[in-house]
Amino acid sequence: MKKKSFKELFDQAKERDTYWVASLILDFTEGLHKIMEANGVSRSELARRLGVSPAYITKALRGNVNFTLDSMVRLVRAAGGEVSLHVAPKAQKKSNDFYRKQGMKKAA
């Protein structure tokens, strides 16, 4: 059996929904942490504002909770930020057809 390269394994992972969910959770938790830092909001202060335990905030920042839109909005607003959701069409792969349609030549 042929061993797969890292690129092949990575491309294969990107075909799974779990890859994209994990990526969104990482983006969300990093953004939440940045907002907390920018606004001087500690984990314990965020917990107090939301009426939850500091342990819950730690779990949330690690991405270890089942986020809902409601929980995401509540967390970010309590930290002094706002949530925006962006939906876009799937990225188009660059192929020779793409370049022909644009009247361009593909770079070597």
Structural account:
The model has no long low-confidence stretch (mean pLDDT 86). Helix 3 crosses helix 4 (54-61). The protein has one domain: lambda repressor-like DNA-binding domains (434 Repressor (Amino-terminal Domain), Orthogonal Bundle). With 108 residues, it is mainly alpha-helical. Helices cover 57% and strands 0% of the residues. It starts with 5 loop residues before the first helix and ends in a 7-residue tail after the last helix.
Q: How would you briefly describe this protein structure?
A:
With 108 residues, this protein is mainly alpha-helical. It has helices at residues 6-13, 17-38, 43-50, 54-61, 69-78, 96-101.
Outline the fold blueprint.
Layout: H1 6-13, H2 17-38, H3 43-50, H4 54-61, H5 69-78, H6 96-101
Helix proportion of residues, in percent?
A: 55-70%
Number of helices, counting only DSSP H or I runs of 4 residues or more: 6
CATH class: Mainly Alpha
CATH topological fold name: 434 Repressor (Amino-terminal Domain)
User: Average pLDDT value?
Assistant: 86
The class by helix and strand makeup works out as: mainly alpha
Order of helices and strands: HHHHHH
Q: If classified by CATH, what would the architecture be? A: Orthogonal Bundle
The main pleated sheet reads as: none
In terms of per-residue confidence, which ranges show pLDDT below 50 for 5 or more consecutive residues? none
- What is the first-to-last residue Cα distance? 32 Å
- The number of distinct structural domains comes to 1
Number of strands: 0
In what range is the share of β-strand residues?
under 5%
CATH superfamily: lambda repressor-like DNA-binding domains
